[in-house]
Amino acid sequence: MKHIDIAVDRERHAHIKCQLELRGLSLAEIASQIGVGASAVSSVSLGKSRSKRIEKHLAAALGKTAKELFPERYLDCAEPPEVSR
Q1: In which residue ranges of the chain is pLDDT below 50?
Q2: What is the pTM assigned to this prediction?
Q3: In this structure, how many other beta carbons lie within 10 angstroms of the beta carbon of residue 32?
């Protein structure tokens, strides 16, 4: 079995938890709101797994976009340039 190292970002995870707490929320409450297990939300927050749906909900709860909260996961998702008329 091949071992793959997954980058875990404990600092961002702690920041997300702290910011949620300041808003009266928790990872478990976010999980309940979207119908997934708390461990799934925690795993995404830590960077152990990826779910665009969970990333989007975490970001929205913090008043951010998923691209702002998880920039390394959205490197290839460039915003189209605005067109001046």
Answers
A1: 1, 3, 80-85
A2: 0.79
A3: 13
